[in-house]
Amino acid sequence: MGRIGLKRSLLSTEETLALGREVAQLVPSNAILALLGNLGAGKTTFVQGLALGLGVLETVQSPTFVLFNNYSDRLFHFDLYRLKDPKDFTNLGFEEYFDKEGICAIEWPQRIASLLPKRTIQILFAHDSTGGRTVEISFPTSANEQSA
Questions:
Q1: pLDDT (tens digit, 9 = 90+) per residue, 7-18?
Q2: Residue 148 to residue 139: CA distance in whole angstroms
Q3: Tell me, which fold does domain 3-147 have in CATH?
Q4: Is 21 exposed, middle or buried (0-12, 13-18, 19+ CB in 10 A)?
Q5: What pTM was estimated for this model as a whole?
Q6: Is the pLDDT of residue 19 over 60?
Q7: How many CB atoms lie within 10 A of CB 114?
């Protein structure tokens, strides 16, 4: 049970958008992306890039106050910053989106860590010492993790 990954430095909003577009083309249509990082680290910008890569025409905004936005049934964007308990996630019926044919992009996934399938791809956004950002993507490695 391991993870393989890739790390990249991003210096601009355009590079973060480009990475989102690239990831949208590389992951399966039912991928679950756990977006980890502090406020302002680039998570929502990355989701905007995902939307561009998926051909979503709607404007992507952070769902901080509503917890969830559905973009054309191709991208399900969660922002769980205000979520207090994983039970709230399941009580709202959000867990059903893990089985749909759209990409789930989850900001603040640590709020529901116990609910995330083993096939979840982790993406860590961090500020670096140069004023830019680093992004580290970790993919599950075993066949069991991919199918779970």
A1: 777 768 899 999
A2: 13
A3: Rossmann fold (3.40.50)
A4: middle
A5: 0.87
A6: yes
A7: 6
